């Protein structure tokens, strides 16, 4: 009787984390949901609306992944969601995809303390409190070595974050560095989805 080949583990659960002032209605979140729905409908994909408080956001993320199988889950996030995704990946020791990820949001978002609106629904407002800066610092994973594969998508044309800082922060990750692009990856994300999806489905064993 021929030996049974052992299939490598594949992705079963994916957490997508949106950025500051964004939502599950963002273009990237919707494209990701559609791509997996068509090609890998067996994957459980969660994209929660994250609360403004980083501490509350962390509790929300933990509540979702607490019962997920760490061996077959992954996380991805955009901008502030990329910062959160790195924290989740450090906690769960799972693969991650970072899309123009924030490196030091406590520094960058200090200018946004006060009333803000959601990009996809300007009628929806939230207050970003000064104490959230310390909550952001508490989620900093820069000193935690990555325990699973990482893929960073970085646009040199990002008008919000410094691509050099992102590239240095994720120097040990696989990187796709775009010569142009923008913070939202608006002209590039859809064409990159097959590479991102292959990386995620294989849990980082297939290079992007």
UniProtKB/TrEMBL annotation:
Q: Pfam families recorded for this chain?
A: UPF0227
Record's InterPro entries? AB_hydrolase_fold, UPF0227/Esterase_YqiA
SUPFAM superfamilies listed in its UniProt record: alpha/beta-Hydrolases (SSF53474)
Tell me what this protein is called: Esterase
Species assigned in the record: Corticibacter populi
Source taxonomy: Bacteria, Pseudomonadati, Pseudomonadota, Betaproteobacteria, Burkholderiales
């Amino acid at each position: 009787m021929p030996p049974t080949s052992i299939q490598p583990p594949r992705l079963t659960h994916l957490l997508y984390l949106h950025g500051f002032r964004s939502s599950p209605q963002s273009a990237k979140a919707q494209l990701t949901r559609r791509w997996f729905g068509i090609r890998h409908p067996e994957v459980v994909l969660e994209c929660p609306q994250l609360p403004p408080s980083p501490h509350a956001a962390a509790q929300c993320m933990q509540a979702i992944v607490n019962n997920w199988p760490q061996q077959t889950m992954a996380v991805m996030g955009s901008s502030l969601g990329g910062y959160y995704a790195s924290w989740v990946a450090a906690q769960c020791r799972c693969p991650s995809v970072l899309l123009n990820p924030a490196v030091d949001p406590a520094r960058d978002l200090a200018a946004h303390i006060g009333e803000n609106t959601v990009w996809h629904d300007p009628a929806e407002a939230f207050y970003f409190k000064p104490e959230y800066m310390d909550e952001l610092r508490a989620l900093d994973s820069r000193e935690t070595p990555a325990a699973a594969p990482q893929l960073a998508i970085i646009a040199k044309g990002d008008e919000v974050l410094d691509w050099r800082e992102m590239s240095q922060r994720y120097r040990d990750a696989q990187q796709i560095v775009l010569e142009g692009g923008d913070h939202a990856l608006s002209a590039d994300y859809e064409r990159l989805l097959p590479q991102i999806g292959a990386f995620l489905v294989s849990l980082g064993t297939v290079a992007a």
